[in-house]
Structure formats: structure tokens, C-alpha cells
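so the lab meeting is tmrw and i was supposed to have these ready like two days ago... anyway. pasting both below. for each one the top line is the aa sequence and the line under it is the C-alpha cells. i havent really looked at them closely yet so no promises
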Amino acid sequence: MFNIRVMTLDDYDAVIDLMKRTPGVSLRDADSRESTAKYLARNPGMSFVVEVEAGLGGCVMCGHDGRRGYLQHLVVLPQFRRQGIAKALVERCLSSLERHGILKCHLDVFKTNALAADYWRSQGWQLRTDIDRYSFTRSGDENA
């Protein structure tokens, strides 16, 4: 049995621990407590955690830019997978976005993360081949 609730900054340490224990998830300076606090404040009630018997078993962060939604860091620990947790987390995010009038959502998957790519394809998400994403880091710090 699991319980999904809104993520708060009090969950930060446990969420970072989940991410560190999950292959394919990259943590950057942008995942700092301060940056996470700003993200949660800018996108209230849109990121979620999953409570399981032993603590947190999963999480997802969700936000938008006013036009498009974005999912980041969907994580479910291996022992809790195949129970519908990831699907329920994503549905909460998409419903939250829809309440804000946002019907299209994007996410990024590292090309080396085949497990995640397989999951998203199995859920009906489409791999975009018509665009390339470019990034620029003003500070020059590639960990930002």
C-alpha cells in the first residue's frame, strides 16, 4: 500500500537520497535545497512523494513555464516498482498541469538511461526526433 502526497521542502533530504540511489538520475547544483525551495514555491502543489511502509519510496517534480509542463526526477525504488506508483505520480502531475490550463508536458531522459526510455514509451510518451535541445550555462559551471 502507498500514499501519494504533495512534496514539501521537509522531504528534501529523503528525496535526494532516493535520487542518489537510483541509476540514471543525475544530481546537479540546481538540485540544491535552495533551488528546490524556489522550484516548489514557484510550482506549489505540483511535485509529489510516495509514502511506503519504510519511508519514501518514490517522488516526482513537476512545474511549468505558463505554456508547457515539465516533469523531472520521477523515481520509484526498485522494490516498489510494478505497483502503479509511477503511473499514479505522473497522473497527479498531469492533472495539476491541466488545472492550470497546460495540456502538453515535456521531460528529459539521458540517452544512456534505457530503462527510463522504455518506461516512457510504454506509457504512450513520444520521443521527439524533430528537435534538439541546446543548453547554455552562464557561469560556465557544467554542474549548474
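ok protien two:
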Amino acid sequence: MPTTVAIMQPYFFPYAGYFRLFDVADVVVLLDSVQFPRRGRVHRCEVGKPSGVPDWLTLPLIKQPQNTLIRSLQFRMTARLEFDKAMSAYPWLQSPNTALGAEVSTHLNQPLNDVDHFLRQGLMVTRDGLSLPAGILNASDIPVPPLLTGTARLIAIAKALGAKRYVNLSGGRNLYQAHDFERHGLELKFLEPYQGQFQYLLPAIFNTPTADIMRDIKDQSRLVS
């Protein structure tokens, strides 16, 4: 059984700080059983233009009801054509300079069928390429009461897995309190705010030595109460 569990929505190639969870946890649970956040990072990846201005690479999804769960998202019928056009705006996506970049390129250019699978696979390819140890599970595969929300849902998932510690990114400090977890026999820990150099991870995967990204993630993987 895992000692340490992290729970996060499955982001589409998020910043390197996200992947610190795969360094400090035994298992990362992808929270695919919650409502899709339309302004979040589940379906879009922040990349930088040569000018340094932020830009977004976005997955072409069907417009669905507001209460659609992440696991129920669907690609548009023309998704492959649309996504190819979107990727063509970034020349570095056409010529990976690292082995991990080549693997991610293969992932990005596969048939676009199942959104939930695509997101999970992207995280797995990156995790494996960065030699990070955590396993990956989908929250929808873990039997917890469906009406639980917020902290109660996280605690139920961690307890179902037999965890003793729950870790979260620093943004969770405003959401979660240690005493709520302690009542259920769980220690609550946070990663410090990410101060590394790879806010735009996807371009780095294609152009930066993988060892440099790995070192950045591990150097930034400090847990605090």
C-alpha cells in the first residue's frame, strides 16, 4: 500500500512544478471524477512564443454541458486536423531534440479518440521519461461515495488507498487544513512554491537535456507542513 498519495486534476503538459508530485508521492491519483474547469489547464498547455509572451496550445474539445466531468470530455470530430494546425504554429514541435521529446511528439501525433486516456498517457510518458517513481491511478477507478466533495473527497480517496500522508502543491494551503486530515490519520504536507526554470515544460521537453529537467524537479521537491 502507498504511504504518500497526491491527488490532482490531469493537466495537459503542465509546468515542471506539477511533476514534483511524482517525485514525492508513491501514487498520484488523477482527479478525473470532478467537473471540467473550462479556464483551467486540463485541456490547454502554456507555451512561450519567441518574444517571451505566454501562449496556449489547446486541445480541440466538443462543447459540452457545464457539469461535464473530466473523464467524460470528448474530442471534436475534426480534432486531429485542428490540432495539427495549432501545433504547426510552433516549429519546435516538429523537430524534437531529445529522446523524451521524440516520445512526446509520437504521443501528440497519435489519433485523438479518448480525452481521458490521452491526458493520462501524456503524464505517464513524461513521468517515465523523467524517471519519476510514482504510480498513476484514476480517481474514477477508486470506490468512494460519489457525493463527497472538496477535502472529504480527497481524504476518502487517500484512505481507500491505505495512505498515511497526503501531499499537495503550495496552492492548496488556502484550501486544506492539517487538523481535517489528522482526524482521519493522515499527515498533510505541501510542496513549497515552485521556483524552478521550467514554467513552460513542453518546449523544454523538446529542446532541453532531460537530465536538466529532472534535476530541476528534484531540487524543487521540498515538503513543508
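from a quick look at the 2nd one: The CA atoms of residues 165 and 187 lie 4 Å apart. The chain has a mean pLDDT of 95. will dig more after coffe
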